[in-house]
Design brief:
Number of strands: 32
Shape: elongated
Distance between the termini: 192 Å
Largest sheet: 4 strands, mixed
Strand content: 35-45%
Radius of gyration: 49 Å
Strand order of the largest sheet: 2-9-8-5
Structural class: mainly beta
Number of helices: 1
């Protein structure tokens, strides 16, 4: 009897010692330990629901740690009760996810019951935002626009398609080559339309460079849309320039130095733009109708204005312009009359063989000319000599008593 009693006491003691070990709380092993989270998530998101059990107790689940701690960290994740379970939430208003800085977070939660606890780590992997793509994803497409001159403003030219796997808003932008203000693209639709009446479109084709962006990633593109224009407005041209001319410095202001011949359906509506190299020489030339004229007095002796390269561009009423054409102008010399100063001089001297050295000055723009002197009127034999090397003139006159 004593032996049986001892065995009963020993069994009860063993059960008492073993009860704390069997009372440890447990997480539900069927719940995932790896979850995904969209990098640009903007709504409160339930990452996982955790079920922790402990027979005879009511365990609680709490957030223990989050690594890394930036750029989002522990403030972005919380554990809250949801029904009979515990939910791990992501709160986007508390921080910003950035895949380039942290592609994953390790969220550790703890289940506690009756003084005992157990941990679980949830691996939160970020799904990065991806840029949009063209649909179809090709580098270029082509289209032909017939009867271009009659295309009106607002006419649809082409529709560019694009998709975004993250459902981000796609923004469309566009440039053109050659540059033109006649086409635009809807920023939110990708529809390319004519801005103006295309009677002002001058080229036979135009390439539209289209770009797309989701506002998150760098823009994508370009996708080139090559638009072939049938029967466009012909650009004007000038047929008789790209040549050199010589102009006498005596050419009067307003006189024409060149009449150019344009080729265009509406010649009378052409306007002309003139530029010069060097730019300062534009002060001496201008356009008048189909002529290049002298605007200011020319002077061969001014070296800087002896040669000028003029450039002419014609533009029609629709805004189409010609290629630039040049006219190389060389101003040539006209021999001007020299001037002797002072024009009148009176000298008094004694009779006999005398020498007079008047303080005359010669003004001659043709400074390289050889000068000769003569007395055009006098009553007695006389002689005049040029001593220009001494910058003076000798007048010798023989008088009789």
């Amino acid at each position: 009897m004593a032996v049986v009693l001892d065995l009963l006491i020993l069994t009860l003691a063993l059960q008492t010692l073993q009860s704390p070990a069997t009372a440890m709380p447990e997480f539900d092993a069927s719940k995932p330990s790896v979850v995904t989270l969209y990098e640009k998530e903007t709504t409160v998101t339930t990452l996982s629901t955790e079920n922790c059990t402990d027979p005879g107790n009511s365990p609680t689940v709490s957030l223990t740690s989050v690594t890394p701690t930036t750029p989002c960290g522990q403030i972005c994740f919380q554990v809250l009760p949801c029904g009979t379970e515990w939910c791990v939430y992501f709160f986007p208003s508390m921080g910003t996810l950035d895949y380039r800085k942290a592609s994953a977070y390790y969220v550790t939660v703890t289940c506690t019951a009756n003084g005992s606890s157990v941990n679980k780590t949830i691996n939160v992997r970020l799904t990065p935002n991806t840029p949009p793509i063209f649909n179809p994803d090709v580098s270029f497409q082509t289209t032909t626009l017939t009867n271009t001159k009659n295309v009106k403003a607002g006419t649809k030219i082409f529709t560019v398609g694009a998709v975004d796997d993250n459902n981000d808003t796609i923004i469309y932008t566009m440039t053109s080559e050659p540059q033109s203000s006649n086409f635009q693209i809807g920023s939110g639709t990708g529809v390319i339309t004519a801005v103006h009446d295309l009677s002002s479109q001058c080229s036979n084709s135009i390439t539209l460079h289209v770009y797309i962006s989701d506002g998150v990633n760098p823009r994508v593109g370009p996708q080139d849309i090559v638009v072939t224009l049938s029967d466009p407005n012909a650009s004007p041209d000038i047929t008789n320039l790209d040549r050199s001319v010589q102009v006498l410095e005596s050419k009067a202001v307003g006189d024409s130095i060149m009449t150019f011949t344009p080729t265009d359906e509406a010649t009378k509506q052409l306007t002309y733009t003139l530029s010069a190299d060097p730019p300062s020489n534009l002060a001496f030339f201008d356009t008048s109708g189909q002529d290049i004229v002298v605007k200011s007095t020319l002077n061969y002796e001014t070296v800087a204005t002896r040669t000028t390269n003029l450039t002419v561009v014609a533009q029609d009423a629709s805004g189409c312009t010609s290629q630039p054409h040049y006219l190389y102008v060389t101003v040539t010399d006209v021999n001007e009359m020299p001037q002797l100063y002072p024009k009148n001089a009176v000298y008094t001297t004694y009779e006999g063989s005398i020498t007079v050295q008047p303080s005359w000055t010669v003004k001659d723009e043709d400074f390289v000319d050889t000068r000769t002197y003569s007395i055009i009127w006098g009553q007695q034999p006389q002689q005049i000599q040029d001593r220009s090397q001494h910058r003076r003139h000798l007048l010798q006159r023989r008088l009789r008593r």
